[in-house]
Amino acid sequence: MSMQMEEKKQVDLNTLLNAIKSLTLEEVKTFTDRLQNELGISSDNFISSREMLNESSSLKESEEIDEKTEFDVILEEVPSSSRITVIKVIRSITNSGLKEAKEFIEALPKTVKEGISKEEAESVKAQLEQSGAKVILK
Questions:
Q1: Is the CA virtual torsion 94, 77, 128, 131 positive or negative?
Q2: Which PANTHER family has this protein been placed in (predicted)?
Q3: Which of 5, 40, 84, 91 is geometrically suited to a Cys-Cys bond with 101, CB 3.0 to 4.6 A?
Q4: What pLDDT band is residue 123 in, cutting at 50, 70 and 90?
Q5: Distances in Å between the alpha carbon of 25 and those of 29, 31, 134?
């Protein structure tokens, strides 16, 4: 294609905008209908920038809500076959004596640690689960 033909195919956007501004409402309706039919587009395909901002701020808020920084480790159940092992783990986690650890596992569910980081909570949970206890994080 020669340079002259390419220049003719390019449309001056200002000229196009001025031409659209001069249309009547009926002509604009006909024009938009043709655009939708010939290009396969519709206004339903587009989201306004305000709607996009609202959606992104809603997502950020929900992410902030979902991100907990402090966790509680709750001991829910200790099978009788695992009592001694769990008592040992409770003693090491809570720095308590044998009597306190034994009393601790007899009144379940009970919070082992509270307000700790996610990493620490998962570590405590893993130790307790390895010893046979049923544990949840909140």
A1: positive
A2: 39S RIBOSOMAL PROTEIN L12, LARGE RIBOSOMAL SUBUNIT PROTEIN BL12CX-RELATED
A3: 91
A4: very high
A5: 6, 10, 70
**Max Cα separation, the chain?**
96
Per-residue exposure over 88-125, b if at least 16 CB sit within 10 Å of its own CB, e if not: ebbbebeeeeeeebbebbeeeeeebbeebeeeebeebb
Q: Mind listing the pLDDT tens digit for each residue in 42-88?
A: 666 555 556 666 666 666 665 555 567 888 999 999 998 989 999 99
Residue type present at position 99: K
94's CB contacts (< 8 A; 6+ apart) are 100, 101, 104, 112, 113
**Cα–Cα distance for residue pair 102/90, rounded to 1 Å:** 9
Supply 62's token pair. 């929900």
CA distances from 75 to 53, 90, 113, 122 (A): 43, 10, 9, 13
Q: Are residues 113 and 66 in contact, defined by beta-carbon separation less than 8 angstroms?
A: no
CB 105 within 8 A of CB 78: yes
